[in-house]
Amino acid sequence: MSRQSYIFTSESVSEGHPDKVCDRISDEVVDLLLSKDPQARVACETLTTTNRIILAGEIRCAGEIENSEIEQRVRAAVRDIGYEQEGFHWEHCSFSNFLHAQSTDIAAGVDSGTGSYTEEGAGDQGIMFGYATNETPELMPATIQYSHQILSRLAQLRKSDKSVGLEPDAKSQVTLVYERGVPVRAGSVVISTQHREGLSPADIREIVRPLVLDILPDGWMCPEEHFYVNPTGNFVIGGPDGDSGLTGRKIIVDTYGGAAPHGGGAFSGKDPTKVDRSAAYASRYLAKNIVAAGLADRCTIQLAYAIGVAHPLSVYVDLHGTDKCDVMKLEKAVPELMDLTPKGIRETLCLNRPIYARTAAYGHFGRTADNEGGFSWERSDLVERLRDFAG
After folding, report:
1. Residue 144 CB contacts under 8 Å (≥ 6 apart), including other chains
2. Fewer Cβ atoms within 10 Å of its own Cβ: the N or the C terminal residue of the chain?
3. What DSSP string describes 212-264?
4. Helices in the chain by DSSP H: which ranges?
């Protein structure tokens, strides 16, 4: 039997966190290539440190891509994040591009009609998880959802009012108290944000406290002694100047804040033939629709793939004892609800579009599907089919 009373914590990091800067840059490269060629292949890794940006990885694109075009896109992204500091400046930092052509051995396993299989195969082996829970309207764990929302609002304030004195690098951490399996209040909230010289932790506290109060449900705010703001004091040096960044180091922030399993594969910098990304989106899509349909309060879905093989090796559904239908029957029905081949996922969710830079911060899940095709995996358009199935 699962525990009914407990505390649980999730963290988020802002778009200016050094690892998130790298995720954004890598996804800008994905978007640039997909805008030239919807079938482009990209595996782009980014390293940032003091006034330096380095790209590495492999690409394949039918359209012509100049190094200057990639550099211009990268610098524009860093400028949008807000870095104009002595130690990391969008205009003055050095830029190195070591992207090269995709391996023909990898391409052969993925391209349809090549290698040992006639269907387009997965871009790699691995396991991917999707999760949904009804504890928030977004069907996300409350701890990670509130952590994201705090930093998103903080970024909006920073960009709309320069006089506030905030800088791009920030972290949040929300601990919630659960009773009978339901979150009821915050046990603690931690916020660390980079700032200009002259602002004290008390000043920062006065800036961020109203945002936290506005985001948490009424009466949920933690005691003042458990509200930690810049607990180490000064936070002027931050971002890639304060710590190096790498693509793909915030996979728990990107997903469910530790409330669900993770297969280990990062998302950013990868085109949608990589099932690390596309199958994780598909499993979230399915899990969300199952919970949205009222068939369970919580749902975890696992998919497993082999490189070069089109269909998943296994499909696993766990409703965590909250099921309101036959879970075994549902598990068998999942592959019928959606074509879970890499091509089928991309077509169902319209993933061969330049939609990925916007996913790089504040979570890939729990967002609103937009008119340009972004966050399509957050749609709830399988609900009626699922209800018919359960009915």
Report:
1. 10, 12, 174, 253, 256, 257, 258, 259, 363, 366
2. N
3. HHHHSPTT-PPPGGGEEESTTS---S-HHHHS-EETT--HHHHTTTTSS---S
4. 18-36, 67-81, 104-110, 142-160, 201-215, 239-242, 251-254, 275-292, 327-337, 342-349, 383-390
Phi, psi of 7 (to 5 degrees): -120, 145
- Gap between the Cα atoms of 213 and 13, Å rounded: 19
Segment-wise mean pLDDT, segments of 10 residues, the chain, 391 residues:
84 98 98 96 97 97 91 98 96 96 63 56 89 97 98 97 94 97 97 94 94 97 97 93 97 98 97 96 98 97 94 96 92 93 96 97 94 90 91 69
pLDDT of residue 320: 95
Q: Do residues 356 and 327 touch, judged by C-beta distance below 8 A? A: no
Based on C-alpha coordinates, what's the Rg of the chain? 21
pLDDT value of residue 1 = 46
Residues 6+ apart with CB under 8 A from 217: none
Q: Looking up tokens 């994201």, which residue turns up? A: 148
CA-angle at 54, arms to 87 and 28, nearest 5°? 100
Angle made by CA atoms 316, 321, 326, in degrees to the nearest 5: 60
What pLDDT shows up at residue 103?
65
Residue 351: other Cβ atoms inside 10 A: 23
Least Cα distance to 173 among 303, 44, 39, 12 occurs for: 12
Q: Of 7, 370, 332, whose CA–CA distance to 184 is shortest? A: 7
Residue position matching structure tokens 């108290």:
177
Burial code of 302-311, b = ≥16 C-beta within 10 A, e = fewer?
bbbbbebbbb
d(CA 78, CA 54) in angstroms, rounded, equals: 13
Residue 121 confidence (pLDDT): 80
Give yes or no for a contact between 352 and 243, defined as CB atoms under 8 angstroms apart. no
Cβ burial of 197 (10 Å; 0-12, 13-18, 19+) is: exposed
Nearest Cα to Cα of residue 295 among 137, 132, 182, 130: 132
- Sorted by sequence, the CB contacts under 8 Å of residue 225 that are 6+ apart come out as none
Q: How far is CA 91 from CA 78, 79, 80, 209, in A?
A: 9, 8, 12, 33
